[in-house]
Amino acid sequence: MLDKPNRELHLVLDRMALEAEIDALALEHEGHADALRLAVVTLLKTTLRDGRETIRTWFSEDRLGTACAQRLSWLEDEIIRASYAYVTRYVYTTHNPTAGERMAVIAVGGYGRGTLAPGSDIDLLFLLPAKQTAWGESVTEAILYVLWDLGQKVGHATRTIDECLRLARGDMTIRTALLEARPILGDMGLAAELAARFDRELVQLTAAEFVAAKLAERDERLIKAGNSRYRVEPNVKEGKGGLRDLNTLYWIAKYVYRVRDAADLVEAGLFTRREYRQFTLAEDFLWATRCALHFLTRRPEERLTFDTQREIATFLGYADRGGLRGVERFMKHYFLVAKDVGDLTAIVCAALEARQEKPKAMLDRFIAPFRRSQRQALIGTKDFVIETGRLNVANDQVFARDPVNLIRLFHLADLHSLALHPDAMRLVTRSLKLVNAALRENAEANRLFLEILTSRNAPETVLRRMNEAGVLGRFIPDFGKVVAMMQFNMYHRYTVDEHLLRSVGELADIDRGEGGDEHPLVNEIMPSIQNRTALYVATFLHDIAKGRPEDHSLAGARIAKKLGPRLGLTPAQTDTVSWLIEQHLVMSMTAQSRDISDRKTIETFAGTVQTLERLKLLLILTVADIRAVGPGVWNGWKGQLLRSLFWETELVLAGGHSNVDRRASVQLSQDELRAGLSDWSKAEVDAYVARLYPPYWLKVDLPRRLRHARFVRAVRERGETLGTEVATDAFRGVTELTILAPDHPRLLSIITGACAASGANIVDAQINTTTDGLALDTIFVSREFPQDEDELRRAGRIAQAMEQALTGTIRLPDAVAKRSAIKPRQKAFQVAPEVVVDNEWSNRHTVVEVWGLDRPGLLYDLTTAISRLNLNIASAHIATFGEKAVDVFYVTDLTGAKITSLQRQDSIRSNLLAVFRGEGKSG
Question: I need a surface site. Which of 336, 434, 623, 649 has the fewest CB within 10 A?
Fold first, then answer.
């Protein structure tokens, strides 16, 4: 009997009519086997193409994911039936088949479930009797050749029942495939015998083994996929909360509870009817997403990349609404579904624990003190018990009797390091209406929540459980607005709520003294801060106003002022939280895009923070924030910039950085160099020191000053004025390229062009000139190789490209053009370019700040445009936030003066904006 969606498709593709067409072709080409085969393949190929196109049309109209997958599976069934009919009637005909000339063609794996994505492989088992003839192998081979000629990707096996069972005992993949075996055609008795023996000889005897293997397989898969269901480019099939998780859940339930259909899990007592509906809705949405992804990309793509998300959102009917773009609404739906899959998985795992089919759970990495399987009262409360090592409710009236228990449950879980029982989580979900205004204003509830947030145990884990249960978003309504909210950009790797929870986790790690090798300064100052509670609250709330039309830092500060008193914070703590949220981006932006050797930069930043305590708090929050953005975003280079800004600002707040201090600092820096060059003559040192201007001595550290001195001396001794040197810095994750060359306005442009042509990503540039007309520039590029020898070889190639560009032996515009194509992922984004020309940010320079869509060669085009404007670049600071480039240049005119002419400032803006329109490309 056909499923409903396939009854509709049957009207388009009539099996009997298709087989009749094959019979007609056989008459037409009688005696010409090759011609018949070609005609049959052409017919089936046309049928497959037209059927898939019909299915795609219906899918675009009804957007039913599961129905689409079932229709594709049914279409494949009919193609296989027609292929079998052709082969057995006209290729290997048996008018009176023997017992050995039998076969069952069985769909296994995903195809066995009766669902296929447009790009899915076809997994088939050709089941043969124990005693067989050559007929079976021949028919199998002929069918496969037909399917391959159709362009099908077919995974296949030809086995007897005994072979299937023997291989399944030792191979969990084969066992899983057989679990979902679905006969398509042939000898149904043979297929039924396999099913019965598989159940009797394997399934009934190995449930615990199967569950353990599938959960271990899931853990390994999720580690590879990123182990978070909130990654902004999720894998629909393999990622956490994706289809494979639903499959695993169903495999386990089917194996343990011996059901044939997901609906049977309700009768088995595993799911409530509401949870089963949750299962079917999640499955339908994920299938809709996967089918749309395959149809739009025309390949078996499983990752929802930025360049596909917008198209799929449109295809599935998500429009802009409520301040969110259609793509953001679609992705929010995706993450909410992924959360539902996680909830269902927890329910199944807990049920299996009760049946002793899997190990007991623990909260995060902390050892649960309660391991007994029987119910045990929790000391100090009659409302909660320990059951199978998990925290559970004593009865189903616990929350109705005292709604504060909805917060107390999670407080106790953190206090005792207990995992939460799914029965308790189910009751929480059914009781969410109790999280109302009265509970939000309850002093005890807020006290317990603040203790959870500032816990020294596992605040991130417990807050995540609260979020997944729906409590956190209701208790803190502004947090609820960012739950599952995706930021459609390449910088943030997680949803807003997940980023905030991870920020709290990063802060807790710092609080415990972990990770000091990556951020030593914050670990050092953390014990000395006086506002630990304010810091945790600010970290939890710093992005809570994302998605609003106004600046989220200002809006978040206002939210904190209202929420602070409710949580029990003092007025001083509330002010600190509000200030931290308002300024939470300032330290990062200053460190990465300002010249921190410029006195005005430090004075301005010091004026913002005002006190040493605020400086410490802001540094710690900034580190936690950056580290929680996603893997690879934090690096030693950013850490060094933040530390340098901290130390320079600390000096100003302590009353330093006067002109006298600067002169003394220059003298001290020069004296350190003299001491380090003890093998040089005094005259030689004096001559070298005199070549460099005061700013150099203030911004270059001693190891680099010593390297520079020996490098310049070596170039001079060779009688040259052009030289390069490379050095690696594993801790900061950068490679330094130092260039000595005759100074001229286009020098930095040529250097950046050589880097672009070599595929090097510049993160900063220190530019220095000497009194005798040379430039001593250091370019910092992102490290690419973990081993120094590999990285040094790469740096050597970049340095060689620089020398060739400076001597004119390569044509730089052509070399850059080969690398300058915008990557497909970046094409999904639009960043309105902006150019700011400011004379207040520096005492000595005009600061030009440029924002826009990043692309290979952008920095080269910008620096070329600046050089054409007859401007000297004193320093350049390059920051990239995903698809957005933020490049800052400290410039003067050719006389060393600021750019004060409004007309010339307008010219700078228009010329740099032209670069983003493609009009300023170097040629």
Answer: 336
610 CB neighbour count, 10 Å cutoff: 11
Q: What is the count of structural domains for the chain?
A: 6
Q: What is the DSSP letter of 359?
A: P
Listing DSSP states for 91-160 in one string gives TS--SS--TTS--EEEE-HHHHTT---TT--EEEEEE--SS--HHHHHHHHHHHHHHHHTT--EEEEEE-
Q: pLDDT value at position 371? A: 37
In the 3-class helix/strand/coil scheme, how is 761-826 assigned residue by residue?
CEEEEECCEECCCEEEEEEEEECCCCCHHHHHHHHHHHHHHHHHHHHCCCCHHHHHHCCCCCCHHH
pLDDT of residue 101: 87
- What is the signed CA dihedral for 519, 520, 526, 529, rounded to 10 degrees? -100
Residues in the chain: 923
The token duo for 830 is 């639009």
Question: Going by C-beta distance under 8 Å and a sequence separation of 6 or more, which residues neighbour residue 547?
Answer: 323, 324, 328, 481, 482, 485, 496
Q: Which amino acid is at 672?
A: E
Tokens of 200: 């009797």
Asked if 125 and 214 sit in the same domain, the reply is no
Residue 533: what pLDDT? 97
CATH number for 467 = 1.10.110
Give the pLDDT means over successive 10-residue stretches in the chain (923 positions): 51 74 92 94 94 94 94 95 94 83 92 93 95 90 96 94 95 92 94 94 90 84 66 85 87 83 82 88 96 94 89 92 82 89 79 61 40 60 87 94 97 92 88 96 98 96 93 96 77 84 96 88 94 97 91 95 97 97 95 86 93 96 93 81 90 67 82 93 93 83 90 92 89 87 87 87 83 89 88 92 88 76 61 91 93 86 91 85 84 92 95 84 54
Report pLDDT for 365.
Answer: 34
> What element of type H or E holds 500?
helix 496-511
| Same domain assignment for residues 148 and 294 | no
In this structure, are 766 and 745 located in the same domain?
A: yes
- Bridge-based pairing of strands 154-159 and 122-127 is parallel
Residue 868 in domain: yes
State the angle between helix axes of 496-511 and 612-627 in degrees (0 to 180), rounded to the nearest 10.
120
| pLDDT of amino acid 370 | 34
Collect all residues with Cβ–Cβ distance below 8 Å to 855 and sequence separation of at least 6: 820, 822, 823, 826
686 and 637, same structural domain? no
Which range of residues forms the domain containing residue 893?
721-916
Residue 356 neighbours by CB distance under 10 Å: 11
Tokens 């394997």 belong to residue: 202
Q: How many helices (H) and strands (E) does the chain have?
A: 42, 16
Please say whether the beta carbons of 128 and 102 come within 8 A. Answer: yes
- Judge if 725 and 868 occupy the same domain: yes
Picking from 537, 747, 516, 735, the residue whose alpha carbon sits closest to that of residue 639 is 516
| Residue 82 in tokens | 């027609």
